[in-house]
Input
Amino acid sequence: MADDATPRRQGFGTRLAHMGRAPLRERGFVNPPLVRGSTVLYPSCEDRRATAKRRLEQVLMYGTHGGPTHFALEDAIAEIEGGTRCQIYSTGLAAVAVPLLAFLSAGDHLLMPDSVYGPARHLCDTLLRRYGVETTYYDPTLDEGGIAPLFRPNTRVLYLESPGSHTFEMQDVPALARAAHARGAKVLMDNTWGFHHFQPFAHGVDVSIQALTKYAVGHSDVLLGSATVATDADWETLRTASTTLGQYASPDDCWLALRGLRTLKVRMEAQEAAGLAVARWFAGQPQVKRVLHPALPGAPGHEIWKRDFTGAASLFGVVFQPRYSEADIFRMVDGLSLFGIGASWGGYESLALPTTNFITRTATSGDLGGPAVRFHIGLEEVEDLIADLAAGLQRLDAG
Output
């Protein structure tokens, strides 16, 4: 029998079904209401002044500061990630940009993995550079000793993305976080691939960034992002920057994300299993040089994934034999009937996106040994997806 003093922690699926809900207060409806609004009225001037002093709390001040629908989603994402406070943004890229602007100033130095999400690299090379922030791109596979010499007295942020966009390098987050904290730098991490499978704050991360567009929404119809923290000091820095920049997300989109969270567990489990099945199939095909899926035994970074993650996303890369040209790869992908050609992932539909010659690397060569394609596995039947891919491999060899 369970000890009442130490109640059993409820399972992830149970928590997803109940977080961000107050059915009794909402007259019995199981879903929270969608609350839209800009102007907030107060019973008195003193009440408004008192509310303004609580600007870092979830209070109704003005529409851009959030409302009940925003607060419900923020609380849910913070709980999923193991943090304390969360800020919702209108896009995943905004969730990358605002924390960087919050924790960096002119004259600061930023360490960014060479495998980072392309728009984040563009932000560093344009806006941050103009604002006087210098960025050094580093090999994402560096260990604690390897990255130590890259820190400078003015290094304020170490940015992580594990696994990396398109090339799926796994980073030793706890070791890299130790190196950063020993030198007074903050650790920001894009945790979209890991979502609830990687608990960022238990591994030394200070700010966890999510593209909620992906798994949280799950239906490829909403753009949203989030940044979550675990300390009051980091929250004040992040929240102040967010409100100063007028960052805001539509309550309609937040409501749709809350709805998406209810089925997150079953979707992610199904897509993880399907992704691994397709990745294993690819690994056995003669046209394939290697599969970049961290959860696949023998894949680069598998040991780190096995140590730090409890599951995997449905996104991975496939490197084809070097004898195939870019035109061959395009012909294969163009002929797929069940895979769309497009960015994003985490939705219900499968995607295929050639990455060779579409990614930038400056600290590493980026040479994978052959042309590559990034695959996202949706909720279609695995047998149908494999049949479609098999026909694609036949097109490769047909020349």
